[in-house]
Amino acid sequence: MTGEAAGEAVPPLYLDYQATTPCDPAVMAAMMPWFAEMFGNPHSVDHAMGRQARDAVEDARADVAALLGADVREVVFTSGATEANNIAIKGAVRHLAARGDGRRRVITVATEHKCVLESVRDLAAEGFDPVILPVGADGRLDPTVLRAALAVPTLLVSIMAANNETGVLHDMAALAPEVRAAGALLHSDVAQAAGKVALDVRAMDLDLASVSAHKLYGPKGVGALYVRRRPRVRLAPLFSGGGQERGLRSGTLATPLLVGFGAACRVARTVRVEEARRMTGLRDRFLDRMMAAIPGLAVNGSMAHRLPANLNLRFPDVRALDVIAHAPEICVSTGSACSSAELVPSYVLTAMGLDADAAARSLRLAVGRYTSAADMDRAAAILCRAVAEARAAGEAAREPTHDDTARIAECRI
């Protein structure tokens, strides 16, 4: 007898891997001793326990660097990608301005994560010129649009490698040369791409790149910023402190989290290629079933240039929130987790040309390391049922009641 048949609670089917991921068992095993047994401060190098923690932190730094294709000296640890993005964008332009650089333009893209958009917009109060570039219907930035914006001398350009809502990949190979030719710095938020697609910050010609552990089966609360050494990129720190992390990010490092971050990077390097192949197969099989069952279902964003695990689906005639309400057994979302409490259309989807109604009919899901083929078959069945129930509920709400009919008749008399 199954758990469902016996009346036991069945855990929800998690398909929101772009919001966060569970810690890999190898990550958990690596972290646990550092919470209690080996609790030394990695900055207290005058004694054995401090040096032990420092060595563990440096091993983790090497693992993160290897995943990114960076030198170990180019990795600065942070609390996550949000902090890394803020340090990269604000730190770079403030340093250049303080050195007398007369350029004021800072460029990003309309579909970026909010922490990037807000970092760029915040700089307007300091006399900088924020420019937010549009994307096409496929969610990608056209290099000619970027080239035109770079006609005005520019300090920095920030373009994410993979979008957190649609999974769409920007053509960094075509965009980076435009930035380099204009003499601007190039930053990329690679939090969604790291561990899922091949990354090499040198091959991508990046000056700065932000990554987060919890997007690749590591712990929450830790991330990193890649800062190019040759040619040297200099940053103004966001806050004052003890000068840890090369003076760019002061504060005591969280050794257990960093050990977990390093372990997650090691696992990702080992399994990425096979994992991407498997996830693509799961995603595409699921999409075929959904397309066959729901005429008019569409995918938002480019299918050819997309993370292996992601789908952003647009239903033809029901709101995504109504579908989710009828599918409590499944964990999916209407967009980025940071915006899920807001009763407004996804700014990512509206930037791609969708109106408020179409954006409201859109749902994000992503398979992950622990998703099986049976899970995806179950997910398709749940969502198809939920769509039918949401349609029926909507039609019932639209049908006039007896009292409504009477009132209409009274109005006609």
TrEMBL record:
Per its database record, what is this protein's job?
Catalyzes the removal of elemental sulfur atoms from cysteine to produce alanine. Seems to participate in the biosynthesis of the nitrogenase metalloclusters by providing the inorganic sulfur required for the Fe-S core formation.
| Cofactors demanded by this protein | pyridoxal 5'-phosphate
> What family is this?
Belongs to the class-V pyridoxal-phosphate-dependent aminotransferase family. NifS/IscS subfamily.
Recorded hits in Gene3D superfamilies, A to Z, give: Aspartate Aminotransferase, domain 1, Type I PLP-dependent aspartate aminotransferase-like (Major domain)
**UniProt-listed Enzyme Commission number(s):** 2.8.1.7
Checking Pfam families in the record gives:
Aminotran_5
- Asked if the keyword Iron belongs to this entry, the reply reads yes
Source species, domain of life: Bacteria
Enzyme kind, highest EC tier: transferase
- UniProt entry keywords in alphabetical sequence: 2Fe-2S, Iron, Iron-sulfur, Metal-binding, Pyridoxal phosphate, Transferase
Molecular-function GO term, any one? cysteine desulfurase activity
Q: Which residues form the Aminotransferase class V domain?
A: 14-378
Give the protein name, as stated in the record.
Cysteine desulfurase
According to its UniProt record, which reaction does this protein catalyse?
Answer: (sulfur carrier)-H + L-cysteine = (sulfur carrier)-SH + L-alanine
